[in-house]
């Protein structure tokens, strides 16, 4: 695979971390490819059906937990992280408490990170190639079956918390991950040790009780799954607990004590667009499909699709304080072409009726 002369790999690893910092990554680590225990954990999770409609999670088989099967020849994984919490954003708890606004997960407020990080990883690979000649690599940012949190943990970037999100003791958990699979036999870093202790705040705060035990997330109950991955009807018993969360959910991270160390994003492209860090639900519900596509261009919110966007906001409007403005907005969508949208609008109108003050 490689055509490079034998470099000093320890020196190269140090250079890679420096180049990654220069490219805007907050931290870089290097791991091997052995993920045996994580493979067992993944298998149990799939057997429990916790992946819901994400059939691709099972379809990829062992490629997810065996990097050298996904990309033959892989010996090491270079993991990087990039902080995403933009400065000046409306405080998350304030938005969640203001039930007339729509809550969008903080990672999705600005530009979609996938392409941005993949481009930076590509540049990192080019810097390595300039130093050592041609070598085998593949860059991944949520773009293939990769156990990114396990790899990042093994690379020393953090530990997997009880909510199944990676936590870094110096930077909390508000960061994206990306990987460069490579055939270079670089020295590996020490894996991160875990520091959740007896804390279970993330488990207790989850609005839909999706964290069914430490390190066990039932995606079928998770608001991120319900508002993004699920394409059909949201189970009725989970609609009220969703509150005003219309794209993703951050509660388990917001409550985590380690996020007092969270770092603000240095990347200006992650700044909120269209005031989505606290926009009014009625206004968002009024967007036409053309407006939705135009205003979410280059953003992760596109993943839910226009129909999913209206479905999610309908649920939030059903949970909003009773008002004629809300009911008018819902009635205007009651004959929407989508059966899913119509069903959620009807539910929301019934909720509004149930909370109407007595005459």
UniProtKB/TrEMBL annotation:
Please name the top-level EC class of this enzyme: oxidoreductase
Species classification: Bacteria, Pseudomonadati, Pseudomonadota, Gammaproteobacteria, Lysobacterales
List GO molecular-function terms, semicolon-separated: epoxyqueuosine reductase activity
Q: What is this protein called?
A: Epoxyqueuosine reductase
Q: Where does tRNA bind?
A: 231
Location comes to: Cytoplasm
Judging by the UniProt lineage, the source's domain of life is Bacteria
For [4Fe-4S] cluster 2, which residues are the binding ones? 206, 222, 249, 252
Q: Pathway of this protein?
A: tRNA modification; tRNA-queuosine biosynthesis
């Amino acid at each position: 695979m490689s055509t490079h002369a034998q470099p000093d790999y320890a020196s190269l690893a140090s250079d890679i971390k420096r180049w990654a910092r220069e490219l805007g990554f907050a931290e870089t680590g290097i791991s091997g490819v052995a993920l045996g225990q994580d493979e067992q954990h993944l298998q149990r999770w799939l057997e429990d059906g916790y992946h819901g409609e994400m059939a691709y999670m099972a379809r990829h088989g062992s490629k997810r937990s065996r990097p050298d099967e996904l990309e033959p020849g892989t010996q090491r994984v270079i993991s990087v992280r990039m902080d995403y919490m933009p400065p000046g954003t409306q405080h998350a708890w304030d938005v969640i408490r203001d039930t007339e606004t729509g809550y969008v997960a903080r990672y999705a407020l600005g530009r979609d990170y996938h392409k941005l990080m993949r481009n930076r990883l590509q540049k990192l690979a080019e810097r390595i190639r300039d130093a050592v000649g041609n070598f085998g690599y593949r860059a991944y940012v949520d773009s293939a079956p990769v156990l990114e949190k396990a790899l990042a943990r093994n690379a020393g970037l953090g530990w997997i918390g009880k909510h199944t999100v990676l936590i870094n003791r110096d930077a909390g958990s508000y960061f994206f991950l990306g990987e460069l699979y490579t055939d270079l036999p670089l020295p590996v870093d020490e894996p991160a040790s875990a520091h959740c202790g007896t804390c279970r705040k993330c488990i207790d705060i989850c609005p839909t009780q999706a964290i069914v035990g430490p390190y066990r997330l039932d995606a079928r109950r998770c608001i991120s799954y319900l508002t993004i991955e699920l394409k059909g009807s949201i189970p009725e018993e989970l609609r009220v607990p969703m509150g005003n969360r219309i794209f993703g959910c951050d509660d388990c991270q917001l409550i985590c004590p380690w996020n007092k160390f969270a770092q603000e994003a240095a990347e200006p492209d992650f700044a909120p667009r269209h005031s989505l860090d606290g926009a009014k639900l009625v206004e968002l519900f009024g967007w036409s499909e053309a407006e939705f596509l135009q205003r979410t261009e280059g953003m992760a919110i596109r993943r839910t699709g226009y129909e999913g966007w209206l479905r999610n906001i309908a649920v939030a409007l059903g949970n909003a304080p009773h008002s004629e403005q809300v009911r008018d907005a819902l009635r205007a969508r009651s004959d929407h072409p989508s059966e899913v949208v119509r069903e959620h609008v009807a539910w929301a109108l019934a909720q509004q009726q149930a909370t109407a003050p007595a005459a």
